[in-house]
Amino acid sequence: MSNDHVNLTGRDVLSITQFSLEELSHLYTLAGQMRQFISQAGCIDLLRGYIMAAVFYEPSTRTSSSFLTAMQRLGGGIIPITEVKSSAVAKGESLADSIRTLDQYADVIVIRNPEIGSAQIAADSAESPVINAGDGAGEHPTQAILDGFTIREELGRIDGLSIAMIGDLKYGRTVHSLAKLLSLYDVKLTFVAPETLRMPDSITSDLRGRNVPVHETDEVGEIIAEVDVLYVTRVQKERFDDLAKYEEVKGSYVITPELLRKAKENMVVMHPLPRAGEIDSAVDSDKRAAYFRQVKNGMYLRMALLAAVLGQV
Ligand code: NCD
């Protein structure tokens, strides 16, 4: 399983910008191998004797269960901390102290926290590798890698594709990381959002500066016929200071079977989930709806990443 040019042992995974194309390809290959092991035997004991702490200071269903399942399918043990109420942080302990403590038990630490930059603080406090599972509206690098893996699995390639992201591009950390990942490939990007939820200028200008074709619009009907991937996101209610502003934009886009009638036969619809009304459930039976396959890919990809940062593949 090894690749002489790629070594991720001991790597903190804080931002998607830390990864080269070659490292991403290696992770996709490993994730494909994990899929085979799981389908043959249900598990593979690469990480027996290793412990992962998963510290989720923000709600999570998929990402936390995906990491916990990935570690257990690799034969490793887990310290799941899912609620800040039940942790020492509720008693006033600093993030740095909590992480330093968990570092005494665990070989790898996965953290989700509402503050941008918190994963970096955790990484500075721990000797074990730290994996960012979402730092507020900042980044969500493992989601981006599993999204890249999913695009490749669904369409056979990433280069040459036209990829649209729609919804809350301002606060959505998944699209921040995914846009940065896709900038390594030869893709055309379209950002579809209401004016108030546009992709941050810092990201679009970085993409344009690196000659990635970027088109912005607020009209999905304008672009649906030409895209290969439609990546749909939830409006991030929890990031709004003023809920009236959330109410104004929450129903901006709904993907329906009618809309998809205008789309290509071999395009895919993705979503990091959870959804909150932006994809009609009638779309689920369409073969182009890839969001539940995307969830499963997340487990394979996180198995690959855990085994890689712990130096076992
Ligand atoms: C996303 C997140 O937490 O950023 N979910 C996930 O990790 N699968 C998207 C969201 O919450 O809207």
What does this structure look like?
With 313 residues, the chain is an alpha/beta fold. Helices cover 38% and strands 14% of the residues. It contains eleven helices and nine strands. The chain has a five-stranded parallel sheet. The protein has a four-stranded parallel sheet with strand order 2-1-3-4, sandwiched between helices. β5, α6 and β6 form a beta-alpha-beta unit. α3 crosses α4 and α5 packs across α6. The longest helix is centred in the first third of the chain and has 21 residues. The model has no long low-confidence stretch (mean pLDDT 95). Bound molecules: N-carbamoyl-L-aspartate. N-carbamoyl-L-aspartate (NCD) binds next to α2 and α6.
SSE layout and pairings?
Layout: H1 21-41, E1 51-56, H2 62-73, E2 77-81, H3 95-105, E3 108-113, H4 118-125, E4 130-135, H5 141-155, E5 162-166, H6 173-182, E6 188-192, H7 201-209, E7 214-217, H8 220-223, E8 229-232, H9 243-249, H10 257-260, E9 268-270, H11 291-309
Parallel strand pairs: 1-2, 1-3, 3-4, 5-6, 5-8, 6-7, 8-9
This protein binds N-carbamoyl-L-aspartate.
Largest sheet data:
5 strands, parallel
Shape: globular
Low-pLDDT sequence parts = none
Report Rg.
19 Å
What is bound: which ligands? Answer: N-carbamoyl-L-aspartate
Strand content: 5-15%
Number of strands: 9
Number of helices: 11
> Whole-number average pLDDT?
95
Q: How far apart, in Å, are the first and last alpha carbons? A: 6 Å
